[in-house]
Design a protein that fits this description.
This protein has six helices and 22 strands. By secondary structure, it is of the alpha+beta class.
């Protein structure tokens, strides 16, 4: 394609090979194997976790080719001056670390524009947003080949790991001699870099280098966007942290623990202790399979809802045990009303722990109602009853 040869320009020739491992030493889950057909953006844009900002959480995406970290948040449109003030006052938190060194993306650096001027138009890959659009995400600019017709499949077709990147114009860091009236910008709709008059445009924040937290504390936003509710400080388990999913990942309506009739099928191997939730879930799904057949198909049940969950770039969720849910209640729900919010009308949540061996038709629940004695918030109920479900994961 005419002009796209510019994408081969090595704008950052001195960077070391990217580190594609997660803080726990495992290969990052967003990176495909070399023999897959997935877009290469997943290999160069790595989700390092969800950062807390203004009572919400957003992905931090490490760009291995540019050695910068993107905050996956679009600030609503405003003037270049106001967006510059916004980004310099920005503070986010990840894994107990505060990051306050954010800036707008750069269009002009000594390495990328040795002649002192950013390029203008399509295929400008040496500005940080242009590089993200064309190289990191593999998109095609509008740029007509014949001066009349646009290129096929132009536009922001691929957003990679980004959830909040929009096909609109974003401000660059560079102003001009009159920044109050003109500044540099990049159009993520058509893939063009240009000077823009003092209009109202969006902004996205970046910082230099990587972010890869090695330690988390109770209440921190975890790698999948949930909250850390338990830390294994005694090294009793093969994992160190337990993370509960946020309310937006909660199943859309209450579901039963087990079958909707009969005497109850006993799984018989579920435990109540911290560290048993994952094994409990696997055992339940093995016994109950796809669910309970109705006239219109199979009915959902608590353990499978969690086992099937894919959220935050992870698919290793499970239904917590009753002791694990109690830690969510004690360490998150009672500690800070922003750390755990009930997703629906039902404040009772199923655990993966059966009540006892003699009553196969019952299982334990945790209440997330008003504050009270610990014992008052643990209940058991019949498995066919519908209650809330919130998944957890260990890492």
């Amino acid at each position: 394609v005419v002009g796209l040869a510019l994408m081969a320009v090595d704008c950052w020739p001195d960077l070391d090979p990217p580190d594609t491992t997660t803080p726990d030493g495992d290969s990052d889950s967003t990176i495909p194997d070399e023999d897959t057909d997935d877009n290469d953006s997943e290999a160069t844009l790595i989700v390092r976790g969800y950062a807390a900002m203004n009572a919400a959480s957003y992905k931090l995406v490490y760009d291995t080719l540019q050695d910068i970290t993107w905050l996956d948040y679009t600030n609503p449109y405003d003037t270049w001056m106001n967006q510059s003030e916004w980004v310099t006052s920005l503070t986010v938190h990840l894994g107990g670390v505060t990051y306050d060194d954010w800036r707008l993306p750069a269009a002009l650096t000594e390495a990328t524009a040795p002649n002192g001027m950013p390029c203008t138009g399509y295929d400008c890959v040496c500005g940080e947003m242009g590089h993200l659009y064309y190289v990191g995400l593999g998109n095609v600019g509008y740029g007509p080949l014949d001066g009349i017709s646009p290129q096929p499949n132009w536009g922001l077709q691929n957003t990679g790991p980004f959830e909040n990147l929009e096909p609109h114009i974003y401000w660059y860091n560079e102003g001009t001699e009159a920044p109050e009236t003109i500044a540099w910008a990049f159009d993520f709709n058509i893939g063009a870099q240009q000077e823009k008059t003092a209009a109202y445009n969006r902004a996205i924040a970046v910082r230099d280098g990587d972010v890869a937290p090695s330690e988390f504390s109770i209440g921190d936003v975890g790698p999948a966007g949930g909250r850390i509710f338990y830390v294994d400080n005694q090294n009793e388990h093969e994992w160190t942290y337990l993370e509960v999913a946020p309310s937006v990942a909660e199943f859309e309506f209450p579901v039963p623990w087990g079958e909707t009739g009969g005497e109850g099928i006993a799984v018989g191997t579920t435990g109540a202790a911290i560290g048993t939730g994952r094994a409990n879930t696997a055992a339940i799904v093995e016994v109950y399979g796809e669910g309970f057949q109705y006239e219109d198909g199979y009915g959902e049940y608590a353990a499978k809802v969690c086992a099937d969950l894919e959220y935050g770039g992870y698919a290793d969720w499970f239904l917590p045990s009753i002791d694990e849910l109690q830690q969510v209640y004690l360490n998150l729900f009672l500690a800070d009303d922003e750390w755990f919010t009930v997703g629906g009308d039902d404040t009772l949540y199923w655990s993966s722990s059966e009540y006892n061996e003699d009553e196969a038709n019952k299982a334990w629940l945790q209440s997330f109602a008003d504050e009270g004695e610990e014992e008052e918030h643990r209940f058991h109920d019949f498995k066919p009853i519908f209650h809330g479900v919130r998944a957890a994961r260990a890492f």
